[in-house]
């Protein structure tokens, strides 16, 4: 699965959220009650946890059913909301199967140790192209654009921070980079999904 690991502190998350909120092709999937969800074009804040981002040009979101007795259908209007029909283990995040129009952003909470937390974007991409479930070209283009924007905003640093010996591969946003330059350690892995 393609991913973009990044070091980001609160000011960096604000910058990232401004970018996502300004994009007319991004909708956030937010809770609307027990087992209920809805799409929203803006979020006020990126709280710690998993955030589902729907790339709206990718097409309809699936409402998963229970097999032959209740087949999958498309969610008629994600902005109006829906109730999940298939109970999932992760009740704190919506479940779409492996839908290539959904990109995940995992935001790590500040750490008690004071280390700079690692967050990450994750996307299924074209993992299932061979069986006819590839990503729409528009979503692949969006992903590349997001990667480019992140590259322009960040500096690559080694996993674990500037004192680590590995190759630079984690995108550090400005506030996180300043903290790393001041000698703060950094988390080694993003939060579990």
Q: Could you describe the 3D structure shown?
A:
- The protein is α+β, with helices and mostly antiparallel strands and 193 residues long.
- It has one domain.
- Helix content is 20%, strand content 27%.
- It contains three helices and eleven strands.
- The strands form two sheets. It has a nine-stranded mixed beta sheet with strand order 7-3-2-4-8-9-1-11-10. A two-stranded antiparallel sheet has the order 5-6.
- It is elongated and about 55 Å long.
In summary, what is this structure?
The chain has 193 residues and is α+β, with helices and mostly antiparallel strands. The chain has three helices and eleven strands.
Topology readout:
Blueprint: E1 3-7, H1 10-22, E2 26-33, E3 36-40, E4 49-55, E5 62-63, E6 73-74, E7 82-83, E8 102-107, E9 118-123, H2 137-153, E10 155-158, E11 168-172, H3 174-181
Parallel strand pairs: 1-11
Antiparallel strand pairs: 1-9, 2-3, 2-4, 3-7, 4-8, 5-6, 8-9, 10-11
């Amino acid at each position: 699965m393609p991913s973009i690991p990044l070091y980001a502190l609160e000011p960096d998350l604000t910058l990232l959220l401004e970018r996502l909120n300004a994009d007319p092709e991004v909708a956030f999937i937010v809770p609307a009650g027990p087992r209920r969800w809805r799409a929203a074009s803006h979020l006020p804040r990126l709280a710690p946890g998993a955030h589902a981002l729907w790339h709206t040009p990718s097409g309809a979101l699936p409402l998963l059913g229970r097999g032959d007795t209740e087949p999958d259908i498309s969610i008629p209007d994600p902005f109006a909301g829906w109730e999940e029909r298939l109970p999932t283990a992760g009740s704190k995040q919506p479940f779409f199967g492996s839908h290539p129009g959904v990109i995940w952003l995992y935001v790590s909470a500040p750490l008690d140790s004071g280390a700079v937390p690692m967050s990450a974007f994750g996307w299924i991409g074209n993992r299932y192209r061979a069986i006819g479930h590839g990503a729409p070209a528009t979503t692949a283009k969006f992903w590349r654009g997001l990667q480019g924007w992140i590259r322009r905003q960040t500096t690559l640093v080694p996993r674990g921070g500037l004192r680590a010996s590995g190759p630079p591969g984690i995108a550090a946003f400005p506030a996180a980079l300043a903290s790393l330059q001041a000698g703060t350690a950094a988390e080694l892995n993003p939060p579990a999904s």
